[in-house]
Design goal:
The chain is 58% helix and 12% strand. It is an alpha+beta fold. A 3-stranded antiparallel β-sheet has the order 1-2-3, with helices on one face. A hairpin with a 6-residue loop joins strand 2 and strand 3.
Length: 192
């Protein structure tokens, strides 16, 4: 249904619930604002405002990742952010969006570190840091985090592979020598 100011309202019914949202029309991508959800009673005045989860889902569909990131940041400041498990889940979602969609690698790394500060070997955070380490531009930023993890896990072959990968990337002779020394020490001490 056409609305005021170049906007239209879409009403969708799924599983006995009505979702109402408004899409602003402009020169670029449409800006989506979720208005509310109610029952299929036909009374639009009864539509209740939606919470952050629904807004987040709709903006994901609309490929508005900066908006999704803002919704996730706001969720961290609510009661939902007080629950440690939910907080970790939201922080990981936000970090993944920063890393993969918004290409803000440094802020993503900081969020992964926040998660690791509470749970030192969180598998999703470690996997993400390993993926970041594959990019030569960011390996140095995450190498200490991964070294700590590999040493705690006694994952000596992973540690050696990380050192070797980084040694192949660096141009400074002193840093390269230091990494090669770490490789030798790991072979000597870790792989006895």
């Amino acid at each position: 249904e056409r609305g005021r100011g170049g906007a239209f309202v879409v009403v969708e019914c799924r599983a006995g619930r009505v979702g109402v949202w408004r899409r602003e029309l402009g020169t670029g991508r449409g800006s989506v604002a979720l208005v509310g959800r109610g029952t299929p009673s036909g009374d639009v005045g009864r539509v209740r405002p939606l919470g952050g989860l629904a807004v987040e889902a709709l903006r994901r569909e609309a490929d508005q990742w900066a908006d999704v990131a803002d919704v996730l940041r706001r969720r961290l400041t609510t009661d939902e952010g007080d629950d440690p498990e939910r907080r970790t889940e939201i922080e990981l979602q936000l970090a993944d969006i920063l890393r993969t969609e918004l290409h803000d690698i440094e802020d993503a790394i900081e969020l992964y570190r926040v998660v690791l500060s509470r749970e030192s070997d969180h598998p999703k955070a470690i996997d993400a840091l390993e993926t970041i380490a594959d990019d030569p531009a960011y390996t140095e930023l995450v190498i200490d985090d991964l070294v700590d993890h590999y040493e705690r896990q006694e994952a000596w072959s992973d540690l050696i592979a990380l050192y070797e990968r980084r040694a192949a990337q660096v141009a400074e002779p002193e840093r390269r020598a230091s990494l090669l020394s770490c490789i030798g020490e790991t072979y000597r001490d870790g792989l006895d």
